[in-house]
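Q: Structure tokens for this one, please.
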Amino acid sequence: MHQKNNPHSFHVPVMGIAFTIDTPIKIAKYGISSVISVVDDIIIEKMNEYYSGKFKIPYQEISTKVEDYRAKRITSYLNTVDIIVKQKFENLKKSFEQKNSEFEKYMEMLPDFSELKQNFIQTIQNNTVKEDLSNWIHNNLKPGSIDVNIMTKLDKPNYSKKDLLPIEFNDAHAALRGFANSTLESSVVLSAGMNPRLYSYFENFNDFFPTENNELKKKIILKVSDYRSAIIQGKFLAKKGLWVSEYRIESGLNCGGHAFASDGYLLGPILEEFKMNKTALIDEIHGILVEALKSKEKHIPTEHLSLAITVQGGVGTYEEHEFLLDNYNIDSVGWGSPFLLVPEVTTVDEVTREALRVATEKDLFLSNISPLGVPFNSLRGNTNEIIKNERIAEGKAGSACAKKFLSSNTEYTEKVICTASKKYQTLKLNDLKLENLSESDFAEKANKITEKACLCEGLANAAFFNYGIERKGEKQGVAICPGPNMAYFTKDLSLKEMVNHIYGRANVIETKNRPHMFIKELAMYVDYFSNKVEEFSDSFNVKNQKYLNAFQSNLNDGIEYYHQLFSDSKIYFEANKEGLLSELETLKTALFSIKIPVLVKA
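A: Here is the predicted structure, written as tokens:
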């Protein structure tokens, strides 16, 4: 059962700040949905200027002196993207009579099972009248969605000179307003957990409430790591009359960017729980929604609003893609990191792309470089890391911190500062010098301070380098955050090649020993668990013991679930069942060879 109203069964998730900043301009005309990060209004303003010039759209610079400039910049850029995508899509529809046209590319890339494709073939066979064909195209083809991503916790307060601005001028609030005021009819993806104040702010915008036709002009997508958090957040929003149109499940560790590890809950069992409970989830939350809309005297939908369950994180083969769709009734699968090698889709500079092409499993690792203190997927030897290390070697640790989007620390200051900033790292290193540590202890602790990297610049710079846009400030490279799955993709691909790979019409993976996505994630969790045991060993307490026991037990439940899944599934795992079961056994042995310390009662 594939979702009828989407031309494709995959989407391109948000990646970094720059990597998907203009992806909809490149691929929405082919019916492929993708997500723009709206965290950085500085790069957004630059991209608006660049694309307005390229497509001859009137452009008015929005300076930082303008009131509410952050939201206004975001609105203006999203409107520009909307205009360009609509224009490109109209041109594509008109091109259907030409050979090798964009229209032909649209149809060719559709999955073979697509009803749209079948209908078109029938329409052509039954019709010779050009006008009828034209009408069919107009009524049936649709562009991909231009969605935006807001990391809910990136919501620092802002100031006008020295005066603290009201909460709606906080970063995430302003980004939401920027999207809400745009002409887009699409979704906002909320990631990184719940922010009650931000969620309440949605009530100020009519487009998030159902229309008389039971439609939502703007929709809410929640990125979640388990069923429990989906229910809690879904109910919270429903009580405000807001419907979550999609729960986007992401692997805790086998993903790109920040990795929000679950407590040992694995992707397979999580998907199973959503599948079993989807109807109950819809009924329960719909009930809460109706009550809230009644009390607000707003239109009450006459039927349940639609709800999609999607998944992303580590998928890399047609077999995995199909299995997720068929076994868990998933509506769409997110393909992220592999698209970093598709210049037609993502914005990556050539130096970084070369590093991605040659990256092996060992080059892709979970790092501690994020100022947010959350594990962050990194690529060894990226240009941002090289420049950072040069500065450290010169005794100039830390970055200038012009953008301040990841500022959250108030250890030394009243206003939040960033742990990757020169200001913070200098203060912290000076404190460390007073501790009179041994050389090796000092080096270890100093490294923990200076390893934090400026991601605001690092994740945005690819667009500046790629489009020759001038950037001010200190020298910075490109930080990139692919998931571990990147190791198995080793060459640049065209959009068509990548789509053919996703739909099983081609195979672009050259290695024979790529692990199954479920096995890969499990292996990462076993490693993560081992590191946690080590991390807690110096300060072991009852709370840590409880956490580790639950973690190990959840992983073991996941292993049991996979054992059954691989043994019972007739279609998907028959060919390599023995291999999968033996990998499971190896990982189970590894898991239980990690000993949780025992607390000795005094």
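A few notes: The mean pLDDT is 95. The longest strand covers residues 244-250.
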